[in-house]
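Please complete every field before forwarding. Incomplete forms are returned to the sender.

SECTION A: IDENTIFIERS
Entry label: holo-159
Bound molecule: zinc ion
Molecule representation: SMILES string

SECTION B: INPUTS
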Amino acid sequence: MIPRRRRRPDPEPMLRWEGKDAVVSYGGLDFKQHKDSTNTLSVTCTSCSAKKGGLSGAELKAFYVEHYNLHVPPPAPVDQLLEVDFDRLVADQRTLGRDELAVIRLVTDGLLAGKPVYGELDVAADSRSFKREGFDEGRDQLIYDAADLLRRLRAGALS
Ligand SMILES: [Zn+2]
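SECTION C: PREDICTED COMPLEX
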């Protein structure tokens, strides 16, 4: 079976300034831009230090795309998302930072808390409307956030 490929995103270049340096962010990568004394623009990929001068317009975008394709892995085919490769899951988690693992801990805690109530998650057999459940939970979160805000305002904790 030919794996269904997900579309690769087409990020928008975003310019920002870091002191005197113009930095273009493209798809999570940073490219430093520099103009020399002859006003020629050169661009440096901060991921691999590749540098190219005299680029403009479409050539500049092509340089971003070239390094985006070089440094950012393509999205996994949909079929890979549907299967759980436990070795890869464990290997991927070993690359995560402390806070990233803490986020997974919180999500895992939610799954474990639901198990005695709903049984093991089985999306095919589960008759709940996940869209509806999500809406209800989102609405409840808004209520709790507003109640917490009200409590803090009354306590003078926020000004
Ligand atoms: Zn690069």
